[in-house]
Amino acid sequence: MVPSRSGRLINRHPGPAAGRLLALVPFALLLIAYVVGSDIRLSENPNDKLLPSFTALSDAVERMAFEPDKRTGDYLLWVDTAASLSRLIGGVALATLLGTAIGISVGLIPYARRTMSAFIAVFAMIPPLAVLPILFITFGLGEVAKVVLIVFGIAPFMMRDLAMRVSELPSEQLVKAQTLGASTWHIAWRIVLPQMLPRIIDTVRLSLGSAWLFLIAAEAIAAQSGLGYRIFLLRRYLAMDVILPYVFWITLLAVVFDFVLRRYQTWAYPWFAAERASG
Predict the structure, then answer these.
(1) To pair with 131 at 20 to 30 A between CA atoms, which of 188, 210, 252, 275?
(2) Which CATH superfamily is domain 77-273 in?
(3) DSSP string, 41-82
(4) 10 Å Cβ neighbour count for 70?
(5) 3-state secondary structure of 24
(6) In this structure, what are the phi and psi dihedrals at residue 126, rounded to the nearest 5 degrees?
(7) Where are the domains of the chain?
(8) What does the pLDDT look like over 125-171, one tens digit per residue?
């Protein structure tokens, strides 16, 4: 007997309430696994540092975020967060400007496409972390090298992605604009760029994970502050009660950035959200 179409699992969809509940299940399972593992290890060795108790985690958060450091007087979590965010935002902003300008040029202008496409493709294959020593030698151990690493790591992806998005625009739009007398500059500014703006937000969202990776790597090697610096400084002491909250904090910041960008995209470009939903 052939099962009905509605009986197949691929055709069953959870309702809104069930969907929210299912989304919480993996997080609940992870939390339960941590609690059980921590209890087992601490019962065998109360001084175990690998899976600290929630009490130890809470004490560490209070110490790092709400008590001034005895040596410097700084609230270390907030100082590290400010340092990392300034580097991250600067690097992502520069990469976005470069990616937008070059990506639109490559996607729109045949001479730019023939000149730059192969170069960008090869450039994108260079492992960014492999050139980190070169960046430190060239730009020093200060802020510039860390920002440049983020730009180096994500700008080529942005360029290639936006170039492909521009090439997918209907050719009829460009032909009609030229028929009405629009120059290349007007076409890029008035037709291509407005349609690329919501796609640029998608590209930034996809690049944020890599940007965080390059930032943490740079801070781990040469920095005096920053979230990555603090994690790699404390690993030598096996201070998991501080490292785990820092990892959670980085994850939370990344989720907040992604959420804000997604909400802004929906608010500022409702036509793009409607187009995506219909697709």
Answers:
(1) 252
(2) MetI-like (1.10.3720.10)
(3) HHHH-TT--SS--HHHHHHHHHHHHHS--TTT---HHHHHHH
(4) 6
(5) helix
(6) -75, 125
(7) 77-273
(8) 999 989 988 998 998 888 899 999 999 999 999 999 999 999 988 88
